[in-house]
Amino acid sequence: MTAKRGVPVTERGRQSRQRILDAAEKVFGEKSYFEASVSDITREAGASLGSFYIYFEAKHEVFVEVLQTLARVIRHTTRAAVEKGRNRIEGEELGFAAFFSLIDSHPYLYRIVRQAEFVDSAAFRAYYAGIVGGYQKRLSAAMDRGEVRRVDPETLVYCLLGTGDLIGMRWPYWTGKPIPTEVFDAMMKFVRYGIDPRPENQEEVRRRSCSSSTSPRGA
Questions:
Q1: Residues 105/80, Cβ–Cβ less than 8 Å
Q2: pLDDT computed for residue 217 by the predictor
Q3: Considering only CA atoms, which of 63, 156, 80 is closest in space to residue 114?
Q4: pLDDT at residue 218, rounded to an integer
Q5: In angstroms, how far is the first alpha carbon of the chain from the final one?
Q6: Which residues of the chain have pLDDT under 70?
Q7: What is the pLDDT of residue 1?
Q8: Which of 4, 24, 90, 165 is the most exposed place for a label (fewest CB within 10 A)?
């Protein structure tokens, strides 16, 4: 161990700590934070209570780290997928697909995030803030490149997150099955129209045309 409590320096220690985190994610997802106990977590991890307290001070601490880990996994997974797109709109499609696939490997993600609001409201807000910050910067850069219509980037991020969150809940989370192709396609048509700069340009042309046609002659 290092001087900092809970941070292992050996591979064996890191694996032991990770087993506890993985077990905590499952136990909090199945039982809820308030019903789960430290002994439930250590039993699932195949670890002793003493091992738990080497790495974590309390149940609350491990819950917050599980939440932070989920946010980090979402950021890294979706960012890697988005970067494979030839433009931002294509990248968004790849990012959504990656997020929906992620639900399969983290089936308790939705339950844990929703519990967080009642367990630790500051950690709950930090979960979204950590996702929104980088997303907002990359959308702003895409706006500068002309790949996304120019609107308030923070508002756009929350609109896109809301879309992915609820579609993911309706299909992978509630059914345990992949999103039907027609559902994903319908969602992406909505997203593309919402962020594609071309419809906005066409609407501006239409407004100018209407304005010209209704202007008094000789004006």
A1: no
A2: 46
A3: 63
A4: 42
A5: 81
A6: 1-6, 199-219
A7: 35
A8: 4
Residue with tokens 């989920």: 70
Task: Kindly report the three-state secondary structure assignment for every residue of 46-97.
Answer: CCCHHHHHHHCCCHHHHHHHHHHHHHHHHHHHHHHHHCCCCCHHHHHHHHHH
Q: How many CB atoms are closer than 10 A to CB 76?
A: 11
Cα atoms found within 13 Å of the Cα of residue 111, Cβ hemisphere only = 16
Residue 81: predicted pLDDT: 98
Helix (H) / strand (E) containing 158: helix 153-168
How far, in whole angstroms, is CA 175 from its chain's centroid? 19
Q: Number of helices (H) and strands (E), helices first, in the chain?
A: 11, 0
- The rounded distance, in Å, linking the Cα atoms of 118 and 193 is 36
Spatial separation of the C-alpha atoms in residues 219 and 216, rounded to whole Å: 6
What pLDDT shows up at residue 219? 40
In terms of residues, how long is the chain? 219
Helix, coil or strand: residue 13: helix
Would you state the structure tokens that stand for residue 57, as one six-digit string? 């001070």
The CA radius of gyration of the chain, in Å to the nearest whole number, is 23
Any residues with CB less than 8 A from the CB of 74 and at least 6 apart, and which? 99, 102, 131
CA 212 to chain centre: 46
What integer pLDDT is reported at residue 2 of this predicted model?
36
Q: Give every CB contact of residue 33 below 8 A, 6+ residues apart in sequence.
A: 59, 63, 115, 119
